[in-house]
Amino acid sequence: MNNERNNTTAGGIGFCGLLAVAFIVLKLTGVINWSWLWVLAPIWIPAVIAVGILLICLVVVLCCELLKGAHK
């Protein structure tokens, strides 16, 4: 038997990408009359969440480092 693993990963557009494409098509065809800010929200909202999580982690790490330095 062949015990090699096939470690291929499937790339793809994902849920947010599909939602963005759907909103863009609906906007361009006139089905929805939303602002472009909300049409493109599936693209920028996950990015904003990721940056927010990174900032929170950075603040926690900096606070821990400052507290370690204050106790020495």
The rough form would be described as flat
Q: Please report the number of helical segments.
A: 3
Estimated helix fraction: 55-70%
Number of strands: 0
Tell me, rounded to a whole number, the average pLDDT: 89
What summary fits the major beta sheet?
none
The value of Rg in angstroms is: 22 Å
End-to-end separation? 60 Å
Regions with little confidence, pLDDT below 50 for 5+ residues:
none
What is the beta-strand fraction?
under 5%
Structural class label: mainly alpha
Order of helices and strands: HHH
**Tally of individual domains:** 1
How does this model look, in words?
The chain is mostly helical and 72 residues long. Helix content is 68%, strand content 0%. Helix 1 packs across helix 3 (41-70). The relative contact order is 0.09. The mean pLDDT is 89.
Describe the secondary-structure layout.
Elements: H1 14-28, H2 36-39, H3 41-70
Helix pairs in contact: 1-3
What distinguishing features does this structure have?
mainly alpha; flat; 68% helix; 72 residues
Summary?
By secondary structure, the chain is mainly alpha-helical. It has one domain.
